[in-house]
Amino acid sequence: MLFAHDNMPGAHLAAALVNAAASGIARPAMEELLGEHGIRRPQLTGDQAELLGDWSTRLRTVFAAEDQDARTVAVNALLTVGTTGVYLTTHDGRRPHLHFTPEDDDIVGRVRAVTAGGLAIFTVESEGERLGTCARTGCRAVFVDTSRNGRRRYCSARCGNYDAVHRHRSRV
Ligand SMILES: [Zn+2]
Ligand SMILES: [Zn+2]
Q1: How far is the CA of 60 from the centre of ligand 2 (A)?
Q2: N or C end of the chain: which has fewer CB within 10 A?
Q3: Is 95 exposed, middle or buried (0-12, 13-18, 19+ CB in 10 A)?
Q4: pLDDT digits (tens, 9 = 90+) for 36-46
Q5: How far is the CA of 80 from the centre of ligand 1 (A)?
Q6: CA pair distance 11, 143, nearest whole angstrom
Q7: Distance (Å) from CA 21 to ligand 2 centroid
Q8: For residues 118 and 14, what is the distance between their CA atoms, to the nearest angstrom?
Q9: 99 C-alpha to center of ligand 1: Å?
Q10: Any residues with CB less than 8 A from the CB of 13 and at least 6 apart, and which?
């Protein structure tokens, strides 16, 4: 179960933040999104919401990277800015997992750390693959590919269907 959802919370949160920012998410919805991804104390001030919007622009670089080397560089840039140290924790009765900033860090620091660290772990496990941007022209969404074959190209079935129909029509 290498690519099970609950093993990779940081990578999935990173994709969700990029996609939320692209669609202009409001602050309450962003707080809800953070809570859904297991972020504790997800309340945001307006400034903090803006900082996370800026951070999502940086997160996008990892999904948009052209190859493994570029992805490695992009993840390292996030780790440099977004993490302060690494340690194991078992808080709230959870299995041992890594944290990349102290637990009392503010919401911006904790989200930066869990997304940077999560993308780093994911990139190791996926050998630099399985992160991408939607192949449909005009769609700005990114995705984490948890499919069996790892050949996902679209953010959603909707975008994949749209492109399939479009290609079919252009042949007729
Ligand atoms: Zn934790
Ligand atoms: Zn799409």
Answers
A1: 14
A2: C
A3: exposed
A4: 999 999 999 99
A5: 20
A6: 9
A7: 14
A8: 8
A9: 6
A10: 34, 37, 39, 111, 114, 115, 118
Residue 135: strand pairing partners: none
DSSP 40: S
Mean pLDDT confidence for 76-91: 95
Residue 52's CB is within 10 A of a number of other CB atoms, namely 23
Cα 79 to middle of ligand 1, angstroms: 17
- How much distance in Å is there from the Cα of 68 to the middle of ligand 2? 22
Query: Is-above-0.70 flag for pTM?
Result: yes
Q: Which ligand is nearest to the CA of 96?
A: 1
Fold entry, domain 5-171: Jann2411-like fold (1.10.3300)
Structure tokens at 126: 């996926």
d(CA 26, CA 109): 20
How many Å apart are CA 102 and CA 125, to the nearest integer? 24
pLDDT single digits (tens) 94-130: 899 999 999 999 999 999 999 999 999 999 999 999 9
What is the rounded CA–CA span in Å between residue 153 and residue 132?
A: 7
d(CA 9, CA 113): 12
